[in-house]
Fold this sequence. Notes:
The structure holds 2 protein chains of 2 kinds. Chain A has one domain: Metal-dependent hydrolases (TIM Barrel), CATH 3.20.20. In chain A, α4 crosses α7 (209-226) and α8 (238-249) runs parallel beside α10. Chain A has helices at 76-85, 104-117, 140-145, 161-173, 185-188, 197-202, 209-226, 238-249, 260-264, 286-297, 313-316, 333-342, 349-363, and strands at 3-12, 15-25, 31-35, 45-48, 53-56, 58-63, 88-93, 121-124, 151-152, 178-180, 193-194, 206-207, 230-232, 254-258, 303-304, 378-389, 408-418. Chain A is globular. In chain A, strands 1, 2, 3, 4, 5, 16 and 17 form a 7-stranded mixed beta sheet that branches. Chain A has a 5-stranded parallel beta sheet with strand order 9-10-13-14-15. A 3-stranded parallel beta sheet of chain A has the order 6-7-8. The relative contact order of chain A is 0.16. Helix content of chain A is 31%, strand content 22%. By secondary structure, chain B is of the alpha/beta class. In chain B, 39% of the residues lie in helices and 15% in strands. Chain B has helices at 18-34, 60-71, 92-102, 116-123, 139-152, 171-182, 210-216, 239-246, 250-259, 277-280, 287-304, and strands at 49-54, 75-80, 106-111, 127-133, 160-164, 186-190, 204-207, 220-223, 262-264. Chain B has a 5-stranded parallel beta sheet with strand order 7-6-5-8-9. A 4-stranded parallel beta sheet of chain B has the order 2-1-3-4, with helices on both faces. In chain B, β5, α6 and β6 (186-190) form a beta-alpha-beta unit. The longest helix of chain B has 18 residues, at 287-304. The A-B interface holds A 195-206, 272-273, 314, 317-322 and B 14, 91-93, 111, 113-116, 118-119, 133-137, 171, 174, 197-202.
Amino acid sequence: MARFFSQTRIARSDSSELQDASVLVNDEGVIERVGPGLDAPEDAEVLDCSGMILVPGMFDLHVHAREPGAEHKETLSTCAEAALHGGVTGMVLMPDTSPPVDTGNLVKSLQDLISESSPVQMLVSGCLTKKREGTELAGFFGMANRDVAMLTDSDRTIPCPDLLRRCMEYAKDFDLLVTSHCDTPALTKGGAINEGHVSYRLGLPGIPAISQEIAIDRDIRVAQQTGARLHLQQISTANAVKAVGCAKEAGTSVTCEVSPHHLLLSEEEIEDYNTHFKLDPPLRLPRDVEALVAGLLDDTIDAIATNHAPHTEFEKSSDFGSAPFGVTGLETAVLALYDGFVRKGVFGWDLLIRKYSDQPRAIVGLPAVRIEEGQRAEFFLFDPEGETEITPDSMKTKSPVTPFLGRTFSGAIRETVLG
Amino acid sequence: MSDLQPRKDLLDIESLSLDEIEYVLENAVPFKQLFQRSVKKVPALRGKTVLNLFYEPSTRTSSSFEVAANRMSADVTNFTVSASSIVKGESLLDTIETLQAMRSDYIVIRHQAAGVPGIVAQHTRASVLNAGDGYHAHPTQALLDAMTFREVYPDYQGRKIVIVGDVLHSRVARSTSTLFHKLGVEVGVLGPGSLVPQGRHPFMTRLRDWDEVFEWGPDAVYLLRVQLERQEGQFFPSIAEYHKMYGMNSERLGRMRERDAYLMHPGPVNRGVEITDQAMGYEKSLISTQVENGIAVRMAVLHWLTPETQKD
């Protein structure tokens, strides 16, 4: 049945103004009419959307769906539910499953699994090295033939700069995007949170900022040398923003992402050894948070990506040092960013859509999603007057673990519409 | 006591108010006086149970808590968890469940991971006494250090203490420096740059060498134990070099003597590393007093804390 979204406002990436309009989506899920003063067709379901905002579906470049191999944490289908619940309609899955996705056949079988389990667009990424072991190149050709979205060893940085160079040289021939988590294992060692006065006070081993910064510098140099396309994940420090800015000025083919957590939280928020604040990379200093927001605004940072990394509440209930790194993000990203930035006027929906919808799609070669006539419906209804309390029961992910647990955000996602 | 809110657990020094600190330190004094008597026991905790739960080997702290609990007439169970039994799959929450079922009134816990006593405290009705967690805190050590310092310096405010050694990996340094700072004692630190972290408390004055230390004018020098097993970490080139740079030797002891400065150490001492044999006999060493005060302070803490089990 056709659906008529009456008297709503449409958010766009190319305009800071919301556009007053009604939207008709036909029974095939295609947007048939967009415009002010439209009348609802008789056979359509009419939804009074006054006060609501229609926002193009978001796209997350960095998701661990855990299937196959760790279905107790998340499955493709619970991941898809979580995404829709959070207004996310597309994503790239990390290859650190069990087995790791390191051949064309594995890419194909995961793609098949996705088409059976997920209504949400899920692109598959592949490993740079066999089994993510950082010793031998994985099967780039087979994976490229299966339209892999990017190559990455996920949270394992390629330890040997020579091997990284060969990966980039080889990837360039297939025009494959090389993605790096940017970490220097020798410096990160057994660290649990940012190294600084909080780690000292809590008596936890620290992860110094230079652990990420050295890796970023190295990866950028190798990208410059080889000419490969490089994407840097989860940048977290002021110096990292600076390094990416310099590389871009020099014409390097580099993009980078930041998580909502790193944009909104610093190490100061870590209280009482709450493992829901244990992220990789760790939350940094307030001045790093400021630099990340500035980098997002001045386009040094291309994209927002959550690093949705589910671990069960039980796994996270261990002591801070032993608990696994990572929290979920798909369901809280839009809400947290709206509440923390859009509502306060730091930036508008246009920037949020650019950073969390258009540009992430562009990085993996997809067209932007628009709420325009002739397009497939792919948007969510946002109620700025609503409120959303983040509780384990309200979440769709299998692992409701997030630093925002217990928070009440202004705004609510009423529905995600997928044609 | 009447002004103080009842407190269930002792997890760190940071969360203690000055009134609470004062209360514990003052109460430890009469407990210490007991030790001079032939009968050293009081019936304060008769019928109560104390579980001594040590995930890390420790003879001194564990015995000190045991003696303190015995002198309060509590029943003590020692539960030493060998490293081999902390295998993967055995979760902290399962262990806590077991502890809860034992219905102890007090749990004294030492654990290699920072924050564990806090997790245990959240999940049990017993009073939890942190006997050392990772690099985080060792609050009873800090309290006994403060008691010892105040005994020799009743006018302790404005006095100075230098902590020497591996501050980075030391829960003793964290708790003791925090407590001294709260009491108005100035804290200096001496040690190699690799072991004196940049993120340390801002109130700690960094001193580069012994000359600077003596110029700064300490009233006491607190030597931290060098963790010999950390040598693999390569934080300093050799024990010999450490001893040469930071150890307490006869020459430095002479300068201590000139100032009438006291010597403290949390024990056990590595002779020939942080301190030479000769220096062990220093007439102003407070090391044995610290051990004795440890028992008194732990009695005072047991006496002070209020387990939820007491509400039954």
